[in-house]
Design goal:
With 219 residues, the chain is mainly β. 10% of the residues lie in helices and 47% in strands.
């Protein structure tokens, strides 16, 4: 009987030691919370994105490492201990190849274009004789359902193309998937089900023309 009691206690201790805990937290920078920041348990496919208030909940084990990332910020890794609530602050400085922001001037005939590269290098220029109506009325690519609970999306473009190249970038700025489609029809499937929950950027080049990027959220 004594041996059985010791065995039961040992089993209970083992189960307790590897039991998962519910970890909650908030991701922010110095002044604001960060929506859609990616929370990933390192060396696994388990993850989640923060909500509109920068909050998250995830089940993990003590000793697991949380990898926290957000576009434009440095990644942060946290080894979990007994703490069940985390206040995570990210620092600006993540690597970006290039980001282009377009803004129309008051006359609607000129466009102000700002291009920012990695670190803090930016340039601003003005292009005239821009067809404002064409740009404003352009039908954007559509992605649905978005958010997607299983990581499978349907991409629909505004017209048919002979060749469409699609690249998918994660919140760390890494290209995780490339594909090329010939005679692109009504829609095509985008599948990130093998990757963790979070935010992804879908970049599209159709017949050599860069289309507007789309933010895809795997919830």
């Amino acid at each position: 009987m004594k041996k059985i009691t010791i065995l039961i206690l040992a089993l209970c201790f083992t189960v307790t030691s590897i039991a998962q805990i519910l970890v909650t937290g908030v991701v922010s920078n110095d002044s604001i919370t960060l929506e859609s920041a990616s929370i990933l348990i390192k060396n696994s496919t388990k993850g989640i994105a923060t909500n509109s208030k920068g909050q998250f909940k995830i089940e993990a084990k003590p000793g697991d490492t949380l990898s926290v990332s957000y576009i434009g910020y440095e990644n942060k890794e946290i080894v979990l201990n007994k703490d069940k609530h985390l206040e995570i602050k990210l620092i600006e400085g993540g690597k970006l190849k290039a980001a282009v922001v377009n803004g129309f001037l008051n006359d609607r005939k000129s466009i102000c274009r700002a291009v920012c590269y990695s670190e803090t290098r930016c340039g601003v220029g003005i292009e005239t004789s821009v067809n404002y109506k064409l740009l404003s009325n352009q039908v954007r690519p559509k992605l649905f359902p978005n958010p997607s609970s299983n990581g499978v999306f349907q991409l629909k473009l505004n017209e048919d193309y002979d060749e469409v190249k699609i690249s998918i970038v994660n919140s760390s700025g890494q290209i995780i998937q490339n594909s090329t489609h010939q005679k692109f029809g009504e829609k095509v499937t985008i599948d990130v089900s093998q990757f963790a929950s979070g935010i992804y950027i879908i970049n599209i080049i159709a017949d050599g023309k860069q289309l507007e990027s789309i933010k895809a959220i795997r919830s």
